[in-house]
């Protein structure tokens, strides 16, 4: 998952990392060791917590941000993003790629699903923040 653009909301990126981890491979985050040690505490049912933040800038001066999130969602829910923060959302939203239905943008921002359905953008004025789901 990558977040492109000069934005001040790195928490939205957390959703996509967690989404991929939970949707593609539903093994608990504690058993994965591909990104180093993981946190071993319990997350309250129905919530998500950020456990790692990653930030870099590519040669085109586009900032890329991602986060690793640990979620404990209720049945029928998966990791998602609400108001630019990681959260549990209805699984059907993610399965059908209706990204804007989970309200991923901040108040006052307009949400648009990307043409290839692989993510969404949040815009206000001339500022656009794009989030893409990668597997």
UniProtKB/TrEMBL annotation:
Keyword Signal (UniProt): yes
**By its UniProt entry, which Pfam families does this protein fall under?**
TAFA
Kindly list the GO CC terms recorded for this protein.
extracellular space
User: Which positions carry the signal peptide feature in this UniProt record?
Assistant: 1-29
Provide this UniProt record's keywords sorted from A to Z: Signal
The source's superkingdom equals: Eukaryota
UniProt-recorded Gene Ontology molecular function terms: receptor ligand activity
Query: InterPro entries, from UniProt?
Result: Chemokine-like_TAFA, TAFA_chemokine-like
The answer on whether this UniProt entry bears the keyword Coiled coil reads: no
**What is the similarity comment for this entry?**
Belongs to the TAFA family.
- Please give the name of this protein: TAFA chemokine like family member 4b
Organism the protein comes from: Sparus aurata (Gilthead sea bream)
């Amino acid at each position: 998952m990558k977040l492109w653009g000069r934005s001040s909301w790195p928490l939205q990126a957390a959703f996509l990392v967690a989404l991929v981890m939970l949707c593609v491979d539903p093994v608990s985050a504690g058993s994965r060791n591909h990104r180093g040690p993981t946190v071993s505490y319990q997350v309250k049912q129905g919530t998500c917590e950020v456990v790692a933040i990653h930030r870099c800038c590519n040669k085109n001066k586009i900032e890329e941000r991602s986060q690793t999130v640990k979620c404990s969602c209720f049945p029928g829910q998966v990791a998602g993003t609400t108001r630019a923060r990681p959260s549990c959302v209805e699984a059907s939203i993610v399965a059908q790629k209706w990204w804007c239905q989970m309200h991923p943008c901040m108040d006052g921002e307009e949400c648009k699903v990307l043409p290839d359905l692989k993510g969404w953008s949040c815009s206000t004025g001339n500022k656009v923040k794009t989030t893409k789901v990668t597997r």
